[in-house]
Amino acid sequence: MKTILLSSCLLASFFLRLCAQLPYGNEENCFTILAGKKATTDGSVMLAHNEDGPGPILINWYKTHSGHADTGTFIVTETAVTLPQAENINGTFWLEMPDYSFSDSYMNEKGVVIASNQCKSREDDPSLTGGGIGYWLRRLMAERAGTAREAVKIGGELIEQFGYLSSGRTYCIADSKEAWMMSVVKGKHWVACRIPDDRLAVIPNYYTIEGIDLTDTANWLGSADIIDYAVRRGWYDPSSGQPFSFRLAYADPLSLTDIKNIARHWQGVSRLAEHPYNLHEKLPFAFPPKEKISTETLFLILSNHYESTELQPLPRSKADPHVSDTMRICSDRNQYGFVAQLRDWMPAAVGSILWLAPPRPCMQPFVPWYCGIESVPPVYSDHDAGYAIAHHFEHGRTMEEPCDHAYCAYLHYAAQINESYSENIVSAAEYKIRRQKEILVLQEKMEKKVLRLYEVDPQGALKILTEFTSSLAMKEYKRTVSALKPRD
């Protein structure tokens, strides 16, 4: 029997790390916006996400390729759960945060994008089989799904089979036709909602799904006993006359009153909705935008520090606007921001893009990483993807070490700007705005060429995509290095 063994010798250290991630105020805070295709200017589905985490740790970019698993190949997860590998495995563009269980992001070769937000639940008596599933959940969805809906179904089956081992989380999943939120609870309960095509949805680090309707299978999926279980646990009383709310029934109540969640949720909704909301108003799960949004709209939201609001940072010359008890959308915990632009009128290789800005979206232009690229510049990763998969919990390193990793340069650049943010951000922002416009012009010209070529020579088209993406990525890396001051 062949196996893919992921860190089984490090189970003890894994559980210690997991326990260390649980208290409130921890670093696993993320922010996501989902947009249906009728809510965007170009008709694409969009998923905007700021991935937050501890720092400093180096993020790796990898490109994995589709493959065929040999008969008898098994996966052994970090909790020693063993399950058969799928016969056919999708290739992925993979953003890896080594050593961490719930922080990787994926775009697979079919254009399915997966990211997540920690959402603590009140579950204190979970059902787990074999230790439950954690890190591998999103990876298996990415490797096996052809659509966002299929990813949700795959994830739901794995949760019902093994149970989810973390307190709770919402996976945001999108393809070129649909966007979904999949909220999972420690143990074997979950619910997923399709975002209506003409709506946006914003989520910080608490559950936002309210009423559910599992009879509407086009728009809802989930555990059949999701309401009955809440009733048995005393989390919902049908005789109260109140409609069932997944959010109120299953969320850890402290997460719902945490200003770090309320403020980011409020700011995202208020910036995009038809009318602004008060900081303490009830916010909608999904809502129509005041005007159709573009990638540039989402670039700005991910860069937001509550400017022009009651929570605006103090105007001190050396103040770092990323650090705050309320937590900004663009915060000191950001590891990267991305906007997935998923266009169904093109082949997924060309039409599905992650626009990526590391580590702070307010400081770097967003560079397009295409679904169809064949490789990533070596400076953006440690080792190779195969090594990273097998040693995910063993190979992390920090920027304090001698470092020629591209992400190290981005981290040092961010730290340099933050030394006197209001002064240093002026030139950085001028470059960012100018360069973003240049990239959009270059992209439009390149795509016209690639789409013509793709019809007769797909491999030649993918080569151009790879060269284009690599060229932009290396230009930003070298520009960032050139902007760094010598360090002692």
Give an overview in words.
By secondary structure, the chain is of the alpha+beta class. It has one domain: Penicillin V Acylase, Chain A, CATH 3.60.60.10. The protein is 32% helix and 21% strand. The chain has 13 helices and 20 strands. The chain has helices at 11-20, 135-144, 148-162, 226-232, 246-250, 253-256, 259-272, 295-302, 348-351, 385-390, 406-418, 421-454, 458-483, and strands spanning 2-5, 31-35, 45-52, 60-64, 67-68, 73-76, 82-84, 88-89, 92-96, 105-108, 113-118, 164-174, 179-187, 189-194, 200-203, 220-222, 286-287, 334-342, 352-357, 367-370. The strands form four sheets. The protein has an eight-stranded antiparallel β-sheet with strand order 4-9-10-11-12-13-14-16. Strands 17-15-2-3-18-19-20 form a seven-stranded antiparallel β-sheet. Strands 1-6-7 form a three-stranded mixed β-sheet, with no helix packed on it. Strand 10 and strand 11 form a beta hairpin. Helix 2 packs antiparallel against helix 3 and helix 12 packs antiparallel against helix 13. The longest helix is centred in the C-terminal third of the chain and has 34 residues, at 421-454. It is globular. Mean pLDDT is 92; it is low at 1-25.
